[in-house]
């Protein structure tokens, strides 16, 4: 009996082999890898510069012959494809590797359909670089699947440290008409660096970082890195409690910070995620803040952008360490009882040529219309909100940070710039929408989709809009045609109150309305009162330096202002350093002036912030009805002659009312009669002029007694001492 002859290799034309060698074949798997035919298996591999190539399986081996410019071919005398390996020699010992071209696509039809529909809510699980583990006949297979959306590309390769940065060995296949290119590379694990090399329709090859990369090289290097998390979370109790809560109805006092300049090593290096996790949670919790807000932690190349010019939307900043280090920081904050809000920048992105800009040789992520796709004010590209795949990329990114990193909220940067087609544009530089208006209808659609998606998927989180105009319904639900945010920054309150405080006390009577006007609209949205980084940088001076007078008066003004702010309807946000009474304005190049805490007057500001947070959280009247006009009542909004503001925060149920009296005059007011909601003893729970805060110590010896008798529309009244440049809180004693 004769053994059947092994057939010749399945033929491929020279033209098609040329396409593979040039990296221009849309389906290299159709040529490379195993192909059964006539009872045997033809195997082709692309190994430029190899001196010999052999295919090995558990029962044999076949030497391949060189066929065409780095393409090697041979026939395995087997009816089915075995679990084989490729041994390649370059003049020394052979390198034995698995063959990427023997694997099926890692994306299914449902994934591709959802991507093209713009509705894949977990996009990061199918695009980008994902480590995967499969069983195998020879041994289990671990490798990385690479997938990238580049619909106008003629070809895509992977250039990486695992192929000596020679992308010729790893051309990717296009999955039908989806625009997605894919390749599974066995043997590649977490930590490997890579880029996509994309042939655009113009015939130019471009090296690009992965838009979906989970990690990136440390700037100034620009490659993406593979990352497989093995982090074990310890915040289950926090997440369970969060899921049953509503941030709008809970206390929220936010410490905003730039991680790179909070503290630095003596040589200027950033603290690592682990170092921050050791110290930051205790510090923030010790001051009593309920949340920390982090300026963008997404990968960005230029530190001076503070993270607002992003290049890798899915990668935590590698300057601090790997993504699991960031998970550790969030986990430790949660375990300390502190929520985590992340600044997020979906309005525009960095122009670096190796990142998103003209990603596949066309304006893919950016709007192709220069009147919509270029941000004059910030010198950056604007996303194409009219393209459903781009909207999907962005809202999936929002879900990613909330689910993968357990973030409790997203503060969305620059919402006003997204909403208006004429934002920062002169006449002739913008075109109206289909209705003739200046509203960016596609951006509105995106914001609504994003908010509806994250609130559906992750109960208890909050989205916060930095929105500086009077756009209606920012915090109304999308079902009522609102934008669907949980909160909106109250920029009007911030500007008006800082303008008022900048005046000398003797002139403040003429600007009294700047402090009361915010109550005209305080309940039109769910507001956050922001004293953010933008107010203490670029020549604006520190919060302390905005205050008039000598040093004592500046500190007193600051303490009085914080006391007023914490009692005002809305949640509070304070930028780092303000709690120290920082003298110099903030700069990202240096750490905070921690030495100020050695001085009693600056320690006093820090202690006041701590006590304000304690009084705030411990007084539900001050926060439980922030979105209810009946939770606030002026006692006297018109005492301009004495620079005094007095009002009531009303609690619900058994929660006692809190009365706030703020005096922004430089002199005390003795025998000041104030109307109160009820007769009885009212405890002085906070006095910003207390000696403990380096104040003058003027006060009411801990409490006042109210007697029956109408005053300022209230049924009772008391005579109190109002300290100079100070805020005093009173709470009815049970």
TrEMBL record:
Glycosyl hydrolase family 13 catalytic domain residues are 256-610
Catalysed conversion reaction: Transfers a segment of a (1->4)-alpha-D-glucan chain to a primary hydroxy group in a similar glucan chain
Q: What is its EC number?
A: 2.4.1.18
Going by the record, the broad EC class of this enzyme is transferase
Q: Which SUPFAM superfamilies match?
A: (Trans)glycosidases (SSF51445), E set domains (SSF81296), Glycosyl hydrolase domain (SSF51011)
Decide whether keyword Glycosyltransferase is in the record: yes
Q: What's the protein name? A: 1,4-alpha-glucan branching enzyme GlgB
